[in-house]
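Per your request, structure below.
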């Protein structure tokens, strides 16, 4: 089996980072919906930390990793 290329890992990291950022945006929106004042620093952390974690997961998981098992 061929080792994954840099481009495959980079695109996987980008996709996972975008998913993480979307999760962070949902967290900020939910906090503001319940009338919690969210500062700029907290907003940046709430979006940045999940995005960073998503990028790390994207790099560590092999491209094409899926739980789908066709029969």
């Amino acid at each position: 089996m061929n080792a994954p290329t840099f481009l495959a890992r980079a695109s996987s990291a980008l996709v996972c980072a975008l998913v993480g950022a979307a999760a962070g945006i949902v967290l900020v929106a939910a906090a503001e919906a319940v009338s919690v004042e969210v500062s700029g620093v907290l907003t940046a952390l709430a979006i940045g930390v999940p995005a960073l974690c998503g990028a790390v997961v994207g790099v560590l998981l092999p491209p094409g990793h899926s739980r789908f098992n066709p029969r």
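The radius of gyration is 16 Å.

Regards,
D.
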